[in-house]
Amino acid sequence: MPLIPEEPQIHESAQGPRATPANSRTAPTPRPVPGPRPAAPPRPGRPGPVRPAPPAQRTPRDATAAAPEPVPSKPTAPAAAGAQVQLVPATVQGALDAAEEAVDLLLDSGRAPGDVLVITTGEPHPWATHELSFGEASYWALHAAADDVFYADAAVAARAGARPVVVVAVNGGSESVSASALAVARSKATALLIVCGDPKWLNSMMSTVV
Predict the structure, then answer these.
(1) DSSP label at residue 30
(2) Contact predicate 128/151, CB 8 Å
(3) Which of 80, 111, 88, 75 is nearest to 190 (CA)?
(4) Pairing relation of β-strands 150-153 and 189-197?
(5) What tens digit of pLDDT does each residue of 2-29 get?
């Protein structure tokens, strides 16, 4: 009788790895999701002085444009050297605004910005303060260029050259300072002198400088 070979016994140790139950597996730690990268810091540029923009810039106009009609104001008096004088009633607090309105009317009528000089008797115009912060050389270079309205206070107005139109804002200062500023303005204006201030005081003062 032929012998039947015995079935080989598979020992437990020889079996493959047992499957770990799903509920006993340890879930891998999730990787953090990378967020957007922070923007790279800007590269430092070369240090240097940054010149801020002036408080106001006038738009240059054609210097050959015809002169405008005189700014309407009362009273009006003739000047000894031929320049017409316009008196614009204004308070001390409103004199500078009145002067700015007069300048705007002149420019809107075609007067070139470089034709106009504005003199203040009290607080300097913000434009003058701004430009003087860069030094007197730069400030007076702008005057020499004569391509924009130039602002000067009474203390330095005598240094300015003549211009066709001079606007005076009597916005403070002593009577002597204001009188001196009017005399200087009278000598600088070749076509039109506009004075903004108290009309009663101006009438008495202008008779001495016109």
Answers:
(1) P
(2) yes
(3) 80
(4) unpaired
(5) 555 555 554 444 444 444 444 444 445 4
